[in-house]
Amino acid sequence: MELRVDTVSCQRGGLVVLEGVSFVVTPGEAVVLRGPNGIGKTTLLRTIAGLQPPVTGTVSAPEDAMAYAGHADGLKGPLSVRQNLEFWAEVYGQRDITPALELYALGPLADRQAQDLSAGQKRRLGLARMMVTGRPIWILDEPTVSLDVANVALFGEMIAAHLAGGGMALMATHIELGVTATTLDLGPYKAVTPAEDMATDEAFL
Ligand SMILES: Nc1ncnc2c1ncn2[C@@H]1O[C@H](COP(=O)(O)OP(=O)(O)OP(=O)(O)O)[C@@H](O)[C@H]1O
């Protein structure tokens, strides 16, 4: 079981942003993507998660091993916290949402509609969703946005627990999580033709 990214080039808006990215994530390992705004972290994560095809190269992982959490929270506003987690648990064939409720301190909020949560609480629910997928490879794009210091620490603990259980994490984040991680600087993979000056409307559509 591993995630293998082999000479992947990826595009946004029809233009290649990163070229020849290769790395492997093994059980118990976290890899953090680093690079300045706009270099292509989100684009690469979406490509690895299978939301868009690579231009060249391959992404290999066991079937149904990955769970992705992007910028959009993916929550159902009218459903309660509990119902959101139950929904995702059912989608991923899991049953018990109790550990996720407990680990993210969502118990007191369990019956509140997701749309009535604060931004940070929504983010916590979005991360709890990763737990109930039961999937070993977590792909996380800026997972700590809107989290306060205490919840960033909580998130770090949750990632550490996931890794200790043999899970893997691939994340784009600008902040220090307090988790032992391999850092991958995307600077050397920046495509020769920068995308900044050539925006189109088709990105992510
Ligand atoms: N509509 C578009 N058409 C073409 N290129 C675009 C479009 N929208 C964004 N881009 C460019 O695609 C590149 C990759 O963007 P991406 O969001 O993957 O970068 P990022 O490293 O995740 O950025 P950030 O750290 O700001 O979240 C950027 O240079 C961006 O300007």
From TrEMBL:
<dbReference type="InterPro" id="IPR003439">
    <property type="entry name" value="ABC_transporter-like_ATP-bd"/>
</dbReference>
<keyword id="KW-0472">Membrane</keyword>
<dbReference type="GO" id="GO:0016887">
    <property type="term" value="F:ATP hydrolysis activity"/>
</dbReference>
<dbReference type="Pfam" id="PF00005">
    <property type="entry name" value="ABC_tran"/>
</dbReference>
<dbReference type="GO" id="GO:0022857">
    <property type="term" value="F:transmembrane transporter activity"/>
</dbReference>
<keyword id="KW-0067">ATP-binding</keyword>
<keyword id="KW-0378">Hydrolase</keyword>
<keyword id="KW-0547">Nucleotide-binding</keyword>
<dbReference type="InterPro" id="IPR003593">
    <property type="entry name" value="AAA+_ATPase"/>
</dbReference>
<feature type="domain" description="ABC transporter">
    <location>
        <begin position="3"/>
        <end position="205"/>
    </location>
</feature>
<keyword id="KW-0201">Cytochrome c-type biogenesis</keyword>
<dbReference type="GO" id="GO:0005524">
    <property type="term" value="F:ATP binding"/>
</dbReference>
<dbReference type="InterPro" id="IPR017871">
    <property type="entry name" value="ABC_transporter-like_CS"/>
</dbReference>
<dbReference type="GO" id="GO:0017004">
    <property type="term" value="P:cytochrome complex assembly"/>
</dbReference>
<keyword id="KW-1278">Translocase</keyword>
<protein>
    <submittedName>
        <fullName>Cytochrome c biogenesis ATP-binding export protein</fullName>
        <ecNumber>3.6.3.41</ecNumber>
    </submittedName>
</protein>
<dbReference type="InterPro" id="IPR027417">
    <property type="entry name" value="P-loop_NTPase"/>
</dbReference>
<dbReference type="InterPro" id="IPR005895">
    <property type="entry name" value="ABC_transptr_haem_export_CcmA"/>
</dbReference>
<keyword id="KW-0813">Transport</keyword>
